[in-house]
Amino acid sequence: MFSQCLTRVTAALAVAGCLTLTGSANAHATAVGSTPVQTFQYSVGGMTMKVPTGCMFTHAIRGSGKKITYQNAGVDCGFAGALGSGFCNWRIDFTYADTRNRTYRTSRGRTHNECKIDPMRSNSPQTLPRYGKACASLYVTGVRRVSQCHHITK
Known about the structure:
Helix content is 13%, strand content 56%. The protein is mostly beta strands. Strands 1, 4, 5, 9 and 10 form a five-stranded antiparallel β-sheet that branches.
């Protein structure tokens, strides 16, 4: 299990590096960013669950201008984080805000009642009505635990 998770993390970092470094003659943009998931505890069915350090929340987005052709977010855990029970009652939301930081659209993910060490969600392609930022957030038992955003500009 540990080597499998370490392999996934290594592959994810390699893909992220490729996406970030790959250039294109067209005006297409790709952004990939990761934010560490802070250690936290929560209760599920009377049991205390602990998420240790070693997990990263990664948000990838592709498109051009206000048009998003691909968007995905998820958690990858390595080392001690891969040994934990994971994230129970989780969901991933995508939110969109204007240049004044006012959220105008939310794509709320489905709440997954199972526990998963590597929760992930993709969102459908779309065209945004305005520039600003696109964010992905991980919720566990209804509490936002980590977010990662990308600015959408001309």
